Amino acid sequence: MTDRIDPQTFAHLVDLAALELDEQQAEYLRRELNAQLSAIHELEAIPLEDDLPITSHGVPYPPQISQPPRADEWQPYPDPQEIIAQAPESEAGYVVVPDIPHTTLE
């Protein structure tokens, strides 16, 4: 199997994702990603008919037997304070989240 993600490219991706991996974890993950890419390329090589309909699963589900989509209606939660009470920190009815430090990508 030819590695499509070489160690240098993987190191760059790890840096962009701000991951902290030791050498063994990094090599394992790089091998797994390459294996997944190989599997994807094998699937891409399977010849398919141009008019093959797109499905989300292998069972035919034509519109004639499909349930209509449910209406997208807003329904208020009966006790929003119950949700707020579960947060580690809240203020004036809102969940307080910690500030995430940003770094400039080069």
From TrEMBL:
Biological processes annotated in GO: regulation of translational fidelity
Q: Where is this region: Disordered?
A: 51-77
Superkingdom in the source lineage: Bacteria
**Where is the chain membrane-spanning?**
none
Q: Which InterPro entries match?
A: Asp/Glu-ADT_sf_sub_c (IPR036113), GatC (IPR003837)
Q: What is this protein called?
A: Aspartyl/glutamyl-tRNA amidotransferase subunit C
Give the source species: Bellilinea caldifistulae
Q: What is the lineage of its organism?
A: Bacteria, Bacillati, Chloroflexota, Anaerolineae, Anaerolineales
